[in-house]
Each structure stands twice: as structure tokens, then as C-alpha cells.
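I hope you will forgive my troubling you with a question about protein structure. I should value your view on which stretches of the chain appear to form regular backbone elements. Here, with my thanks, is the record as I have it:
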Amino acid sequence: MADKLSIIGEEMKVIRRDLHKTPEIGLNEHKTSNYIIEKLKKYGYNIERVAGTGVVAYKKGTALKKAIAFRADIDGLRVKEKTGVDYSSREDGMMHACGHDGHMAILLGLANYLSDFELNRDIVFLFQPAEEGPGGAEIIVREGVLKKYNVEYIFGLHILPDLEQGKIGVAPGPMMAQTGEFDIKITSKGGHGAMPHTAIDSIYIASQIINNYQSIISRNIEPIEGCVLTIGKIEGGRARNIIADNVRLEGTIRAFSTEVYNKIKERMAEINFGLEKMFNVNIDMEIEDMYPPVVNDYKLFEIFKDIFKDTVEIIKPMMISEDFSYYQREIPGLFFMLGSRNEKKGYIHPLHSCYFNFDEEILKIGLDAYLRICKYFGVISDY
């Protein structure tokens, strides 16, 4: 099968570049899903559309009844590309700046390779929309796709420029954070800066909120827990000599534990309530809960570590988020990182950068990783 792998390796590069030219925003990936469907039909798979623009391909095995699934995210970002490559985005103001074009190419490469095999167990290829938002994985879970195809385990990968090319990174248990975004509006009584006793200063109250929120992590959360509470934006006031009657704050919460995440939210609400009573103001807070934490199954982690002992690197958990977590709330799953950092070739730019790119040789490494998993879990007998 060496010749076929070589051919697929070249085809993955073509696929990646085709997809890179036409990035689309979450739940609007129509060109992308049509391209994926065309390839999967060529490989001979049964196909189903899910979550609007998502695609599921399925192939039945002969022995084991439970399936294993592999997931690739398919959406791009609202980023204007500045890489200068000849396959740059043709969509104005949109770019595959997070490697999803590579993820799709790898999964299509896997589907191509396995298309000629009689499989020992069922396999599902899940091309998921809207990872960057609003979260296509949750929609797919809600539509019952995992149950319909009797999926036992699910695997996914992400290209990561913080990890050296050739390395595969993984963490046991919590690997990526649960996230939430909050907006706070303080409404008080404005007045002249020369007569502060006649007013209630929203800016001063905002400073109290910021100071008190800092105590949540340091005094209410167990020190060994990983979490972040950041206020990144503040707006208030009209002039230097007017006491502000309202202030807006915006920020983010991140934690590796849902319990810790909820504790932070509870303490924020308690602090707000206390300040309302203390200063006789209104403090309105809206929190949008986003993705749950990515938590790798410990059993799958040990298996994965054994399979990839030559290239695996145990990495620290990261405060970034991923909606792969919705699958892991339903079934055991494992998410890992495909290193892409290559300083000699200039592949050093971070995810979501307008300069982000990677050496397409890593597509072969991703395919090899998926094939090793297939062999271990009995999809194919040899590789």
C-alpha cells in the first residue's frame, strides 16, 4: 500500500489547497460541503447531510458492530489573508486561518485509503460545520448522529504551530478549557465632577468590580485548579469633569472544570449583588456559556500514548476552547495536536493569524496517526 499512500499524500495537498481557496463561515459552508460530498461519492461512501452544512460518511464493517468516528471541522474565519501564497483565499475577508483545510484534507485522505478495504468494524467520518461558532458539534449531538451510527469512540486532531513539526501532542483528562463571555452594565447617577456627593460614580464602582473579581481566582478557587477571569474591555464616561452614570465591561471566563466555571459565575453574581446594595446602583450581567471543556478519556489517552510512543509529547492543558467537547460529553473521545512549527521554513505564525500556514508534509503525519488508530481499534487488520 506504499504506492497508494504516496498518491494519497499528493492528493491531500491538492485537496487542502482547493479548500483553502474557498473558506466559508460557520453554517454557511455550502461550497465546502459540496466539495467534500463529491470526493466521498468518488470514494464510494454512504453520505448524509447533518447540521445544515455538515457531512457524515459511513462504511459498515463485517465484525464489530460499534463504530469509531473521526471528526474534521470545516469552517473558516473572518480574517483577511496575507500569506501571499498562490492558493490564497478567493473569498474577501475570509481565510482558513485555523488549519481546518488541513483537517479536512487528512480526513478525506483517510476515507480514500480505507475505501478499498473490507473493514472489520463500522467507521464514521464526520465533517462538522461551525467549530469557530456557534458550535456545530452541539447541533450534531442534538440530531442524534452519534447514536444513529452507534459510535463507541471518537477522535479528532488540530494543527498547532506551538508544537514542533513531526510531534503529536496530547494531554490526559482536561486539555482545553470551558469558556464563557460576559457583559456587565453599571447604571448609576451622573453628576458634575466638582460635586461628587450629589452623584454615584459608575467608574469607581467598575473599579470595585474589577478588584473584587480578582479575589475569586485567588481566594475562592482551589489553587491547583486552572482557570482565568479576564475583563478585556471597559467603556464609560463622557467628559473629564462629569461623573459617569453608566459603564460597560466585557470579559471572558475559562476553566478546565465545569464545577469551577460555575463557581466563578456564582461569585461574580454575589459580588455584583453586594455592590448594588452598597452603592444603590443597578448592575446587570449577561453571561453566554460557550463550549464545555475538552476532557480526554483516560483509557484512550493511555492507548494513544502507547501507539505513538515514538512521536507523542505530553502537553500542558490550554486555555483555548474547542467544541469537540460536546462529543466527549456523550461518548469517550480523544483530541490531539498535530505539530506544525517549522522555523526553517517560516511556519511560525499563530492560529487565527492572517499569516498562518503550514508545511503540507504534516498532512501525511495526520493520516498516519488516524491509520494507526484504525489498526489498533480493529477497523483494519494491518497498516
Q: What stands out?
A: The first strand starts at residue 46 and ends at 50. The mean pLDDT is 97. The chain is about 35% helix and 30% strand. The chain has two domains: 2-176+293-376, 178-289.
